[in-house]
Each structure stands twice: as structure tokens, then as C-alpha cells.
Specification:
There is one protein chain. By secondary structure, the protein is an alpha/beta fold. It contains 13 helices and 19 strands. The strands form six sheets. Strands 2-1-3-4-5 form a five-stranded parallel β-sheet, with helices on both faces. Strands 18-17-16-19 form a four-stranded antiparallel β-sheet, with no helix packed on it. Helix 12 links the parallel strand 14 and strand 15. The longest helix is centred in the C-terminal third of the chain and has 25 residues. The radius of gyration is 22 Å and the shape is globular. It starts with 6 loop residues before the first strand and ends with a strand.
């Protein structure tokens, strides 16, 4: 029997998929009657770890040590990618640390709660809390794992092979959010575009799943905007013609914004990263997407200072970024990640060079973001009213609220110069 378990605290590190998982852990605790409390006083602390880069793992280890020192009484449940790779590292930090694999975390939490509350009924499925104080854009995890093996990445080892969530489970969850009045759902996954599942005997890819979700949330009798869907990060090689056609025909219900990881604008570097496309392939895809949906905005991830990257190859990346006219660039200086092929290379780039390239690309990214926003002057999009007083447009620009509106609602936003 857990003697003291009336409150909890969740620490989330890493990607949007981690955030969705962490929200589900919090929701499970809340559904059992636990109170969310500051770290220092929590009886249960859940730390969802990250291992996407070497720097991310350093931050993760530091965070778990901080939790152990700040919280002197609670159970410390450590899960996530770094925990999967280095369980003993965390177990040695404190006898109160319990390392649990990602797949078993929910079951472990349910076990703790059932042990404390006896026959108390816990929900079979958990949805993230919505309403005042919670996120207005709600994430729904539909896929996990990755079958790719990029030479800089360890996530496919930590997460395992690609798996797709049962389509009927997703449909049921989306219906619940729709009934609660949620207006924007973000579909997330480690390799989202690899989604494959069946419903009523039909094999569904991501486009097929989205088509069903559009249908079940289409309220023809209502004057209010229907729920819209934002697609999380999707790899360029996974975008199908059917997906492009569906997005273009959805009239904004599938947001005309995609996060399309580039990683490098040099075909040579892409090949050494084990990315299955060339710079020319990427640009061709972007042209195709913009022809189908002219108002499309594109955000991306780019790694600078990959081993062996020359100044000329870095400039190729900058030029391709300009051609693609990205609305946001997430810049990552290459971080040596033990256990990956790239970490074994002898041609590592000096830290000062990586820093300078990152600074230059961020400056370019800021200029491109401003240009994308200016190009929208005179146009209108639906924007989601966020709880912090800002609005998030369909094109994924965060803008200042023009007037008071109900948090979580979709309202027209007019772009001005």
C-alpha cells in the first residue's frame, strides 16, 4: 500500500509526442482524484525523459538529479527515451527512483492508483484535461517508433520499431474531444507519416484516418467552425498524393501548415545522414504542395555542423531554405550522440563553427518568418484563441489578440502589414 499518494507532479522533457504522453499521465492522476502540486511536495513525480541529442540527455540527467534533491519523499517514476537507453544511470541516483519503460508507464501508474484506492474505478482510456488552465490545442498520439535509421539519431533504438495505434481507439478519443468542444487537435507520432491500421476491414494510411476524423467531426447543422486538425512533424518521403489532395480540399480543416523536416539542404550531407531524398526531391515536393495549397506555410528542422559539412554545403542549406520560404526554422547545432554512426566519424565540426552557422541560419529563419507573415497581409485565416491571450493562426503564426474572445474558440484573423 502506498502510504502517501494524494498529489503528483509531471516533468516533461523533449518532443511533442512526449508532451502528449505526459498530459495523459497527468490526466490519469487527476481522474483518480490526485491533486497536481509543486515538485517539492509531490507524493508522486513522473519524469518523461528525452534522448534526441547528447545535450538533451545531459539536461535529462541534471533534471532527474534536481528532482531527487528537491523532493525528499515521493516516488520518482522515470520513463521515456533516455530511461529506455540508460535505466541503471537513473536507478543509481536514488532508491526512490523507479524506471519504467514507455509501454508500461500507464499500467504502472494504474497499479499505484489501484493499490492506494482499492476498488476505485479508473478510466480504461484517458484523454488530456481541457478547459481553463489547460492547453487549447490538444495532442492525440496516433503512432510511435521509427523504422528509419538516420545516422545522427538514437530515437529509433529508444522507441523501437514503428507501430500504429488502433484506428477505432483514435476515433473514439476524437469523438470525446469533439463533445467537449475542442476546436484544434494535433496528430502526433515519432514517424507520423508511417501510420497504417485497419478499420472495418479497410487498411488506413494517415490520409485515410484523417478522412474519417473529418467526417465524424463535421457538424453541418452548426454555425460554429468545426474541429480542425493540425498534422505534427511528417517526413517528406511519407507524404502521399492522397494526403496532399485531402489537405487541399479540406478548406482549412486540415491546417495548411506542415512541419516538414529538411535536416540539410546539401544532397551529399543528406546521403551521409541516411535521409532517403535529395535536396532536389525536397524542393520538388514543396513546389507540389504549394501548387495544391497556395497559402501553405512550412516549418522545418535543420541540423548545422553535421560531421564533414563544409561551408559550401552549409550555404546550400541556406539557399534551399530561401527557395522553400519556410515560415519557421528550428535550428539544431549537431550534437554528438553516442551509439550513432555519425558519432564515430573523425571529421567532427568545431563547436565555434557550429555556433556561427546556427546563428546565421537562425537569423535567416527569423527573416523568412517575417516575410511569410507579411506575404499574408490582406488575407484572413481562422485563429485559435489561446489561454495566454494570444491567437494561433492556421498558418502557425502566433499573433496578439485583437479583441476579447472565448478561449479555445476559432475566430477570424485578418493579417495586416
Amino acid at each position: 500500500m502506498v502510504k502517501a499518494l494524494s498529489n503528483f507532479h509531471v516533468v516533461n522533457l523533449g518532443c511533442k509526442v512526449n508532451k502528449v504522453e505526459s498530459d495523459s499521465y497527468a490526466s490519469l492522476c487527476l481522474s483518480a482524484g490526485l491533486e497536481e502540486t509543486p515538485l517539492e511536495s509531490a507524493h508522486l513525480v513522473v519524469v518523461n525523459t528525452c534522448a534526441v541529442t547528447g545535450e538533451a540527455e545531459k539536461k535529462t540527467r541534471k533534471t532527474v538529479r534536481h528532482v531527487c534533491s528537491c523532493n525528499s519523499q515521493g516516488i520518482i517514476l522515470v520513463t521515456g527515451c533516455s530511461a529506455a537507453l540508460h535505466a541503471s544511470v537513473y536507478e543509481e541516483m536514488s532508491p526512490r527512483v523507479k524506471v519504467v519503460t514507455k509501454a508500461l508507464t500507464t499500467d504502472y501508474l494504474k497499479g499505484l492508483l489501484e493499490e492506494k484506492f482499492g476498488s476505485a474505478k479508473l478510466p480504461e482510456s484517458v484523454i488530456a484535461p481541457v478547459g481553463e488552465g489547460f492547453r487549447t490545442r490538444v495532442g492525440v498520439k496516433v503512432q510511435d517508433g521509427c523504422d528509419n535509421a538516420c545516422t545522427y539519431c538514437i530515437v529509433h533504438v529508444a522507441r523501437g520499431k514503428a507501430t500504429s495505434r488502433d484506428a477505432q481507439e483514435i476515433i473514439d478519443e476524437v469523438r470525446k474531444y469533439d463533445a467537449l468542444g475542442v476546436k484544434e487537435l494535433v496528430l502526433t507520432g515519432i514517424n507520423l507519416g508511417s501510420y497504417r491500421n485497419q478499420v472495418d476491414g479497410d487498411c488506413l494510411d494517415l490520409a485515410g484516418l484523417l478522412s474519417i476524423l473529418l467526417d465524424i467531426t463535421n457538424h453541418l447543422e452548426s454555425n460554429e467552425p468545426d474541429m480542425r486538425f493540425r498534422v505534427g512533424s511528417i517526413e517528406p518521403m511519407d507524404i502521399s498524393d492522397s494526403f496532399v489532395e485531402l489537405m487541399a480540399a479540406s478548406n482549412g480543416r486540415i491546417c495548411r501548415h506542415l512541419h516538414l523536416p529538411l535536416q540539410s539542404g546539401s544532397t551529399k550531407v543528406l546521403r551521409e545522414m541516411n535521409r532517403p531524398y535529395t535536396a532536389e526531391d525536397f524542393l520538388t515536393l514543396v513546389d507540389k504542395l504549394r501548387k495544391a495549397a497556395p497559402s501553405l506555410s512550412l516549418s522545418t528542422d535543420i541540423i548545422v555542423g553535421f560531421p564533414g559539412e563544409t561551408e559550401e554545403e552549409f550555404q546550400e542549406t541556406c539557399q534551399l531554405a530561401r527557395q522553400c520560404a519556410f515560415s519557421k526554422i528550428h535550428v539544431f547545432p549537431y550534437s554528438l550522440r553516442r551509439g550513432t554512426t555519425a558519432a564515430l566519424r573523425s571529421d567532427q565540426i568545431d563547436a565555434s563553427v557550429k555556433s556561427a552557422r546556427a546563428s546565421e541560419l537562425r537569423k535567416l529563419g527569423n527573416a523568412l518568418a517575417l516575410q511569410d507573415k507579411m506575404n499574408r497581409a490582406g488575407t484572413q485565416e481562422l485563429a485559435l484563441v489561446e489561454s495566454d491571450g494570444t491567437w494561433m493562426t492556421e498558418s502557425y503564426h502566433s499573433v496578439d489578440a485583437q479583441d476579447e474572445a472565448t478561449v479555445g474558440s476559432l475566430v477570424p484573423y485578418f493579417f495586416t502589414k
